[in-house]
Each structure stands twice: as structure tokens, then as C-alpha cells.
Input
Amino acid sequence: MARRGKPKKKFRMTFREFINLPGWKTRAYIRAEVEDTSSKKIEKNEYNDGTNYRLPHPDLTFSLGDCSSDIHLEFDTYDYDEMENNLYKAEMIYQAAKAFRAALKKEMKLFQSRRAKLLKEGVKEKNID
Output
């Protein structure tokens, strides 16, 4: 039986993961995809005022979600300037995530040392939050 509809898209990269630790009770996810347009052709259209060419435009998806919020970023790909801005946007997201992780690790270390001090002083774990 023949397939109907559009052919299935190929992706250059796809990343779909739940991002909470196993056993965590709430949902949290990340989804990122970049369509692979390497097999798509440049479209040529003849008009009265000349010939126009349409380059293949990849679909780009970047979404984050947790138990209460979802974020879907838009990445338009209609021209070179938009593609260049998309690359800049991805770089800024990457830099912010790295800086956030580094700061979180420092806060976690401080949290652990404060907790350990209280336990050493005889405070019961159930009384620490």
C-alpha cells in the first residue's frame, strides 16, 4: 500500500529527553531538532518578471518544559540574516546554560557544606530543609 501525505522529514540532529532525574514525580523535557535539507533541491520558478529561486529552509525546533511552563523558541530560516541570527541565538543559549550550570554547582557545594555543618552539630536531617 502506498504512503500518503508528505514524506517523513530527515533530521541532521534530534535531541528529545526527559530532564528530571529518574523517579522524579513531575515532567520536564528538552526537545531540539534541526531538519536535514541536504537531499532537497533548490526550487526554480519562472515568472513574467524573471526567474526566482527558493532555497530549502530547515525546520528548527527548540523547546523546554517543566511541571508548570513550556518554552518554544522560534527560529525563522527564510534568509541568510535570519540563519546567522539563529546561530547567534543558539550560541547565547549555550553560553547562558554553561554559566547557569557553573553557578548552580557553586550554590550546591555551599548548600552541602551548610547541611553537613548542621548535621555535625547534631541537627536531625528531618529538621533541615
User: Anything to note?
Assistant: The chain has two domains: 8-77, 79-129. The mean pLDDT is 92.
